[in-house]
Amino acid sequence: MTAAEVRAAIRDGTLAGPTERLAPDYVQANLVVVPRAYAGELADLCARNPVPCPLVEAPLAPGAHAPRSAECADLRTDLGRYRVWRDGELTEQPRDVRALWSDELVAFLIGCSFTFDHALSEAGLAPRHYALDRNVPMYRTRVPLASAGRLRGMMVVSMRPYKEHEIERVREVTRPFRVAHGEPVAWGDPAQLGIDDLMHPEYGDAPVLEDGDVPVFWGCGVTPQSVIVASRVPFAITHEPGHMFVTDRLHDECARNHRSVAAAPS
Predict the structure, then answer these.
(1) What's the confidence (pLDDT) of residue 21?
(2) Average confidence (pLDDT) over 253-259
(3) Burial of 221 (C-beta count, 10 Å sphere; 0-12/13-18/19+)
(4) What is the pLDDT confidence band of residue 255, given thresholds at 50, 70 and 90?
(5) Considering only CA atoms, which of 75, 146, 77, 106 is closest in space to residue 236?
(6) Contact in structure between 174 and 184 (CB atoms under 8 Å)
(7) Domain 3-252 part of CATH 1.10.357.10
(8) Residue 113, CA distances (Å) to 65, 105, 130, 193, 196 in order
(9) 20, 114 in Cβ contact below 8 A?
């Protein structure tokens, strides 16, 4: 399926569930929508924390719901499920959010690690959740973000287990995908990130672990949801973790752009 076909099927209700294995050549994104009064601070938060919160495109104009990264798309209907937050509390999980949208809302699209899972698979390093058609496990850490105005919180990470001898290659494959968090932020003991129980993630499915596995952690675009809670943002809309927005951007183009910049003479 193309990205446009995935979005159309989600909009029609004929496709549901996590988007991990859908349109694998295309960049996927997390959705965060905040009141106009918080948009500047959220943009600053993303700039100050580019690993967990890389922007797929600049914030939309107030009230806009048609992103430039996807033709004929509608952010109010084209994600499988949404979360609605009031004063930092999760209050609704609707199928679409047209009735809640207003000209006072500003939408952000933030990178997602689903973007590089296909690249790992093609490199012979398929993440286990990807191979088993499960949702990636995601954890709240005790690693503080660089705050921005009223916004503060802790980083969220996703985890993929690998054998120790595979980690350097995993780092090489994922490093070019800066729009999707890039290479891992940590690996090994989960306690270094303040994760107490690897088998009980806050989001996604529990990991399937084997002998000799080393947990490898990446920044995660669910991080702004922890910010919404910690900062008690009065109103916000996000995606349901795992139910991403599929853009028309090809992930290979993003990786090539990074390689071109890295190779340019200083």
Answers:
(1) 81
(2) 60
(3) buried
(4) low
(5) 106
(6) yes
(7) no
(8) 23, 26, 12, 18, 22
(9) yes
Give the whole-angstrom CA distance, residue 221 versus residue 258: 19
The closest of 57, 181, 46 to 109, measured between CA atoms, is: 57
The pLDDT value given to residue 257 = 57
Residue-averaged pLDDT of the chain: 92
The SS3 of residue 142 is strand
Give the pLDDT of residue 266.
42
Q: Using an 8 Å Cβ cutoff, are 265 and 51 in contact?
A: no
Beta-carbon contacts of residue 91 (< 8 Å; ≥ 6 apart): 84, 85
Helices (H), 20-145: 36-48, 114-122, 128-131
> What tokens does 146 get?
């660089």
Among all chains, which residue has been given the structure tokens 């690993």? 51
CA distance 23 to 5: 9
Q: What is the pTM of this model?
A: 0.90
Helix, strand or coil, per DSSP, at residue 137: coil
Q: What are phi and psi of 26, to 5 degrees?
A: -110, 145
